[in-house]
C-alpha cells in the first residue's frame, strides 16, 4: 500500500508543541459592545484581555520558545558589559554574517562554561572588525552596533543623528530618503528631522490579482522597490540629496510582501553607482529569506542562514525591530558596516559617526551594553535570533499565513494575494463593493468594530482612516490603499483559531450591507490618529 505523505495531502507537519496555555474569558457580545462604546471604538484602546483573538500586530506578540525562556533565566542585570551583551553581539554576527558557520557562543552560557581562559579567549577579549558588529577594542574605537528598546528608537537614533551631520555639511539643502515602503514610524522619524520620506512602490502592483492556488508554486515579490522610479528620483533630485536608500524586508506597508534577492542586488547596484549607502529596515528578514528560498531561482538548495548572509552582504547598515520575526517580545538595533560608505561619508569634522551615535544613545536611551533592555530580554533575544532562522518554524509560520489567505479566497473574500509573511490583508475597496460606502465613510474601521463586537477578534484598518485620507491633498489620496490587516502573532494561534477567524470574516462579508459607516467624533486633526482619536459607528 502506498500512502500519501502529509505534504502531498497538503497538511502541515506539526512544528511545535504548546506547554503553556492562556485561557480566554467568556465575554458576551453585549459586554464587548459596551466596552467598544466606552473606549470610543478605537481599536488600540480595546482591552486585549477581553478578546478571543488579537491580530492588531505581530510585533512583540510572539510566543517565545522553551530555549528562549531557558536563556532568560541566565539574564545578567549588571550595569556594564552584562553577559547577554556578548551573546547578543555574537548572535548578530552569526545571523547576519556567518551563514552556515555560526559560532553560537550562547551555548557556553547555557552549559555553564567555567574555563576562564576559554571564556576570555572565545568571548570577552575577542576582537572583531570589518562587519556590522565590531568587537573588543574596535567596538570601543569605532562603535557600530547600537542596541535599542525597539525599531523606532533605532530609527530615531539614526535619523536624528544623520540630520545633525547633514546640517553641518549644508544647513540649507533639502534631503529625500526613498524606501520601497516606509513604515509609519520610519516615515515619521524622517519627517521629524525635516527630511522627506519618499515611497518608491507602485500601488497597482499590490492590487494585481493572483490565483490563490498558485501560492505554493510561485511568488511575484510584490514588495520589491521600483528601480525605475528610484533612478528617476536620483536623477531629479541629485545623488547628494539622498543621504541613504532604504529597503524594507518584508514590505509591511505593501501588504507584507517579500523583496527578491534580484531586487536587493539591483537596488544595491544603483546605490553603489551613486555613492549612496543602502540600508535595510530588516524587521522581518527571516520571513523574507524563506520566500527567497521557496520561490527565487537558484536559492532552493541554500539554507535560510546562507540566504540571510547573502541578503545582508548588500547592505551598508540596517535598523531592525527585534520584536518581529519571532525573535522576542522587546528589542531593536541599529547596525552599521564598519568603515562602510555610510560611516565614511558621515564621519565629518573629525568625529566618527559611530561615536556621535553612541553619545546620543547613552544620553537618551541607555548605555551601549543594554540599550534600555533588561539582561533577561537580551538573553531571550540572543536565543531568539537562532530560533527564527529555523526552517521548520518558518515553513509553519509562512504556511499558516498562506492557509488563512487561501481559506478567505475560497469564500470569495477579497484578500491581497499572494499572502505576505506576517499578515493577511483584506482589500476593503472590493470587500465593500455594492454597499454604496464611500472612502471617507471608513468602512474598513466599521468592519473591525463589527468583528470585535460579534466575534471578539481584533484586526486593524490600514487605509483611509489610519493614513488620514481626509487630511491629504488629492495627489496623496490616490496612493492610499484601503486595507484591513490581520497580523498573526507567531507560534500563538492554531489552525482552529484561523478557522474561527475565517468563519467570522466570511459571515460579515456575506452581510456587508450591515457594516456601519464610521464618523470621527474626537481628534480628527491629531497625527497618528489611529492611536488616539475617538470614533462612532453610524448604523442606518
Ligand atoms: N519597520 C517596520 C517595517 C515595522 O513593521 C515596524 C513595526 C517598525 C519599523 C517599528 O518597529 O515597533 O519595534 O518600533 N511594526 C509593527 C506593526 C508595530 O504592527 O507592523 P517597533
What does this protein structure show overall?
It is a single chain. α9 (184-191) links the parallel β3 (176-179) and β4 (196-199). The strands form five sheets. A five-stranded mixed beta sheet has the order 2-8-7-6-5. It has a three-stranded antiparallel beta sheet with strand order 9-12-11. A two-stranded parallel sheet has the order 1-10. It is built from 22 helices and 14 strands. Among the domains are: 6-58 and 391-538, Aspartate Aminotransferase, domain 1, CATH 3.90.1150; 151-321, Aspartate Aminotransferase, domain 2 (3-Layer(aba) Sandwich), CATH 3.40.640.10. The protein has helices at residues 6-9, 29-38, 66-72, 83-97, 106-110, 116-124, 137-141, 151-169, 184-191, 203-207, 227-237, 261-274, 285-295, 304-313, 341-346, 353-364, 375-387, 391-410, 428-431, 443-455, 474-477, 495-510; strands spanning 53-54, 145-148, 176-179, 196-199, 245-248, 278-281, 317-321, 332-336, 423-427, 457-458, 460-462, 483-487, 517-522, 534-538. The radius of gyration is 23 Å and the shape is globular. It is of the alpha/beta class and 540 residues long. The model has no long low-confidence stretch (mean pLDDT 96). α2 packs across α20, α8 runs parallel beside α9 and α8 crosses α16. The longest helix is centred in the C-terminal third of the chain and has 20 residues, at 391-410. The structure holds ligand F0G. The site of ligand F0G has 16 residues, from α8 and α9.
Amino acid at each position: 500500500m502506498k500512502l500519501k505523505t502529509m505534504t502531498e495531502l497538503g497538511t502541515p507537519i506539526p512544528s511545535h508543541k504548546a506547554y503553556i496555555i492562556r485561557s480566554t474569558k467568556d465575554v458576551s457580545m453585549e459586554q464587548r459592545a459596551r466596552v467598544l462604546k466606552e473606549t470610543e471604538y478605537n481599536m488600540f484602546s480595546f482591552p486585549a484581555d477581553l478578546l478571543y483573538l488579537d491580530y492588531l500586530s505581530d510585533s512583540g506578540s510572539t510566543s517565545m520558545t522553551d530555549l528562549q525562556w531557558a536563556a532568560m533565566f541566565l539574564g545578567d542585570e549588571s550595569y556594564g558589559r552584562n553577559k547577554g551583551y556578548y551573546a547578543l553581539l555574537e548572535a548578530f554576527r552569526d545571523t547576519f554574517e556567518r551563514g552556515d558557520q555560526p559560532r553560537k557562543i550562547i551555548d557556553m552560557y547555557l552549559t555553564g562554561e567555567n574555563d576562564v581562559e576559554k571564556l576570555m579567549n572565545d568571548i570577552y577579549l575577542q576582537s572583531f572588525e570589518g562587519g556590522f558588529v565590531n568587537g573588543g577594542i574596535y567596538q570601543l574605537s569605532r562603535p557600530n552596533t547600537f542596541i535599542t528598546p525597539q525599531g523606532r528608537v533605532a530609527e530615531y537614533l539614526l535619523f536624528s543623528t544623520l540630520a545633525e551631520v547633514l546640517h553641518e555639511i549644508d544647513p540649507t539643502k533639502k534631503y529625500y530618503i526613498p524606501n520601497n515602503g516606509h513604515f509609519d514610524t520610519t516615515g515619521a522619524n524622517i519627517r521629524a528631522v525635516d527630511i522627506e520620506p519618499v515611497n518608491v512602490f507602485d500601488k497597482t502592483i499590490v492590487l494585481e490579482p493572483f490565483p490563490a492556488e498558485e501560492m505554493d508554486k510561485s511568488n511575484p515579490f510584490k514588495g520589491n522597490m521600483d528601480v525605475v522610479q528610484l533612478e528617476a528620483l536620483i536623477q531629479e533630485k541629485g545623488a547628494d540629496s539622498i543621504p541613504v536608500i532604504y529597503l524594507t524586508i518584508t514590505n509591511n506597508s505593501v501588504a507584507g510582501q517579500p523583496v527578491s534577492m534580484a531586487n536587493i542586488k539591483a537596488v544595491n547596484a544603483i546605490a553603489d553607482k551613486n555613492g549612496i549607502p543602502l540600508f535595510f529596515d530588516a524587521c522581518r528578514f527571516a520571513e523574507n529569506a524563506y520566500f527567497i528560498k521557496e520561490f527565487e531561482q537558484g536559492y532552493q538548495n541554500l539554507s535560510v542562514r546562507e540566504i540571510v548572509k547573502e541578503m545582508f552582504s548588500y547592505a551598508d547598515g540596517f535598523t531592525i525591530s527585534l520584536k518581529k520575526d519571532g525573535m522576542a517580545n522587546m528589542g531593536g538595533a541599529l547596525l552599521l558596516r564598519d568603515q562602510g560608505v555610510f560611516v565614511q561619508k558621515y564621519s565629518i569634522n573629525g568625529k566618527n559617526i559611530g561615536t556621535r551615535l553612541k553619545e546620543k544613545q547613552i544620553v537618551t536611551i541607555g548605555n551601549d551594553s543594554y540599550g534600555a533592555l533588561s539582561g533577561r530580554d537580551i538573553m531571550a533575544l540572543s536565543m531568539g535570533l537562532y530560533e527564527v532562522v529555523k526552517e521548520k518554524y518558518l515553513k509553519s509560520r509562512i504556511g499558516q499565513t498562506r492557509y488563512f489567505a487561501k481559506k478567505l479566497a475560497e469564500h470569495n473574500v477579497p484578500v491581497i494575494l499572494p499572502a505576505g509573511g506576517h499578515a493577511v490583508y483584506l482589500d476593503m475597496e472590493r470587500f465593500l463593493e455594492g454597499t454604496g460606502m464611500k472612502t471617507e465613510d471608513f468602512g474598513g474601521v466599521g468592519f473591525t468594530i463589527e468583528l470585535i463586537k460579534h466575534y471578539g477578534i481584533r484586526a486593524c484598518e490600514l487605509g483611509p482612516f489610519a493614513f488620514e485620507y481626509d487630511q491629504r491633498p488629492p495627489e496623496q489620496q490616490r496612493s492610499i490603499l484601503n486595507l484591513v490587516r490581520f497580523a498573526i502573532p507567531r507560534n500563538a494561534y492554531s489552525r482552529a483559531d484561523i478557522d474561527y477567524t475565517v468563519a467570522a470574516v466570511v459571515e460579515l462579508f456575506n452581510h456587508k450591507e450591515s457594516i456601519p459607516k464610521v464618523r470621527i467624533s474626537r481628534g480628527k486633526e491629531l497625527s497618528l490618529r489611529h492611536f488616539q482619536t475617538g470614533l462612532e459607528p453610524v448604523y442606518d
